[in-house]
Amino acid sequence: MAHPIAPMIIRGEVITDHLIEVGGRGGDLTFLTPDANKYIDRLPLGNPTKLADLYRLSFDDILDYAVALGERLAFDNNAYLQEACELSFLTAPTTPTIVKASYMGLQNLLRRDVITEMVESAVGVEYLEGWVKRQLLDGTELEVRCFGARTLHIVAGNAVALSLWTIIRNMVLRSDAIIKAPSNDPFTAAAIARTMVDMAPDHPLTRHLSVAYWKGGDQAFEQRLYQPQNLEKIVAWGGFAAMKHVTQYIQPGLELISLDPKRSTSIIGQGAFDSEANMREAAVRLASDIGAINQKGCVCARTIYVQSGTDEQGLERLNTFGRYVYDAMLALPNSISTTPKHYDRNLKAHVDALRLDDEWYKVIGGQAGEGAIICSQLPEPVPFSTLLDDRTANLVPVDELSEVMDAVDAYTQTVGIYPESIKDQLKDVLPLHGAQRIVSLGYAAAMKFAAPQDSIEPLRRMGKWISNQIASPQTSPAPWLRPSI
C-alpha cells in the first residue's frame, strides 16, 4: 500500500517533490513529505517589505476571505479535509468519532461575527486598520498601530482546530506564517492551505501562509531557519522538552510566545450536595470536563476537589457522586468522548493497584480501559496524579474550599467551578496561586477566541505594537530647552 503524502505548501504553491519517509507519532502511520532541507531557502519570507501587499487589504476584505474559506471547509464537500480526517484516525491521540466531529466543526470558526468579536476583544479593529491617535498629558500626540510579523508556529496535534486558529490569527494580523505541522497531525494545516490555494491562489492571505513538516530537533535545519533575519516571533505549543529545545534559538529580535502544557482541575462546592438534582447536574458537567476530547487537552479536569466533607458521611457522599460522574462520562456523546484509543498501560497498572487498597481509595470503572473515577478516602490526590489521562480522574474530598489553594500553582490552567455561587469567593484568589482560566463547570473545553489564553493574550503578543510620537516645542516640553544644572 502506498504511503500517503503530507504536501508542503509555500505561499500558494503545493509541493510534493523530494519526498522522504516519516513515521507518525505512535507508529500507527508512515507518511511521505517533502524534505524541508531542500526548501530551507524558500520557507522564510525574506525581505519584510513583502508584507506590504497585506496592508492593501481592509479588515472587511479579510473577513470576506475568511467567510469564503469557511464555505469551502464544509466537510461534506471538501476532499482535502476528508482525506486528512481519514488519515488522522491513525495519527490523532483521539478516536475517529471525535476526530471527525472536530473536522466537521472547523467552518464554524470562520464566521464573520466570531472573528470580529475575537479581534475587538483582544486587539481592537481600529489598531489593525490604521494609526489610533490620542493626546498625552504633556501635549504629545501619540499614534499606535498593530502590525503583523514574520512568524513560525509550532502547533500541537492534540486538537484539529489549532491549525485553523493559527491561520485565522495570522490573517487578521496581516502576518506571514510558517506552520510546522506536528507528527500526530501532519495533514490538517496542509488540507486547509490547499483549500486556500484552490480558492484564491494569488490572494495575499494565501501567499503569506506556508505549511511544512520537519522532525523537531533537527538542529542543522533549525539553526538556519530560526534566525531574526527570517523570523520575528515563534509561537510554540508543546511539552516541556520541546519548549526547552526551542528556547536555545531565542535571541534579540526573535521572540518566543509560549503556549506550554498545563494541568487543569475542578472545584465542587458543598452546594452540589444540597439536592439529588444538584448532584446529578454537577456530575454531568464534571464528566464533560473530564471526558472532552478524551482528556487529551490541557483544559481537561484531572484532579477534582470536592467539598463533600472528610468524615464518614462526607466520604459516602463523595463515592456516590463519583459513581454519578462515571455513569455520566460513559453516556457522553461520541462526538466529544469515547472509550480511549489506547489506555496508557502504566496508568492502568497504577489504577489496578489501587483496587487492592480500598481503605484509602475507591476505584469506579477502568477494568476495560474505558476510563475510571478514583475517589480518594483521604484529602490527598493519588501519588500518580500527574499521569491522569484517558478519562481517568481523581476526586479528592475536602472540608473547606481554602484547602484547594495549595494544589493550585503556575501549571494550573483551567479551573471549573460548581455551583456558580462560589465563584465570587474564588475568582480573585485562584489567580494569585497561578490559575489562568476560570469557567463554569462543564465548559472547560469550550475555549473562546475572544478570551485570553494561558494568562496571556496571544493575538496581541503576535502583533508588533508600534508607536509614533508627534511633538513640537509649541505643544510639548523640548528636551533641548531644559535649563542646565
Low-confidence stretches: none
Overall shape: globular
The averaged pLDDT comes out at 94
| Largest sheet features | 7 strands, mixed
Number of strands: 19
N-to-C CA distance: 84 Å
Helix content: 25-40%
Give, in spatial order, the strands making up the sheet with the most strands. Answer: 2-1-9-8-7-10-11
Distinct helical segment count: 15
Brief characterization of the structure:
With 485 residues, this protein is of the alpha/beta class.
Please provide a written account of the structure:
Helices cover 31% and strands 20% of the residues. With 485 residues, it is an alpha/beta fold. The strands form four sheets. It has a seven-stranded mixed sheet, with helices on both faces. α10 packs across α11 (312-330). The longest helix is centred in the middle third of the chain and has 19 residues, at 312-330.
Fold topology:
Blueprint: E1 8-10, E2 13-15, E3 19-23, E4 30-34, H1 59-72, H2 79-91, H3 96-104, H4 112-122, H5 125-129, E5 132-135, E6 141-147, E7 150-154, H6 161-173, E8 176-180, H7 188-199, E9 209-212, H8 219-225, E10 233-237, H9 240-246, E11 255-259, E12 263-268, H10 276-291, E13 301-306, H11 312-330, H12 345-354, E14 361-365, E15 372-376, E16 392-397, E17 412-418, H13 423-426, H14 430-433, E18 437-440, H15 458-462, E19 464-470
Helix pairs in contact: 2-3, 2-7, 10-11
